[in-house]
Design brief:
It is a single chain. A hairpin with a 4-residue loop joins strand 7 and strand 8. The protein contains no helices and eleven strands. The protein starts with a strand and ends with a strand. Strands 2, 4, 5, 6, 9, 10 and 11 form a seven-stranded mixed beta sheet that branches. Strands 1-3-8-7 form a four-stranded antiparallel beta sheet, with no helix packed on it. 31% of the residues are buried.
Length: 119
């Protein structure tokens, strides 16, 4: 099992910045990729950014050049620096971890943190 705890959400004006953090605990050694997803009411959860334990990253087109994901494998944390925020970034942001073991693949989620961008 893996537990994820997010922090850093809040309210900001358009053009501002926020930094989200996620701390993992439990069976951390099995985690291959960590990332951030977001969800707004009535819509499916969507990928924002992911990072593997080797440092390879992937971003949604809508956040490329504005958001940066980073990971500290020693501290079991993954951060999301969000710059030049706009109203379309308003959502609940979820930290995700994918674990790979001989028994299969499992996804774990944090409780979510609200990000609100006002214009």
């Amino acid at each position: 099992q893996v537990q994820l705890v997010e922090s850093g959400g809040g309210s900001v004006q358009a053009g501002g910045s926020l930094r989200l953090s996620c701390a993992g605990s439990g069976n951390i050694g099995s985690i291959y990729v960590m990332g951030w997803y977001r969800q707004t009411p009535g819509k499916q959860r969507e990928l924002v950014a992911t990072i593997t334990n080797g440092g390879s990253t992937d971003y949604a087109d809508s956040v490329k050049g504005r958001f940066a994901i980073s990971r500290d494998n020693a501290k079991n944390t993954v951060d999301l620096q969000m710059n030049r925020l706009n109203s379309e970034d308003t959502a609940v942001y979820y930290c995700q971890a994918r674990s790979i073991t001989p028994y299969g693949t499992s996804d774990y989620w944090g409780q979510g943190t609200q990000v609100t961008v006002s214009s």
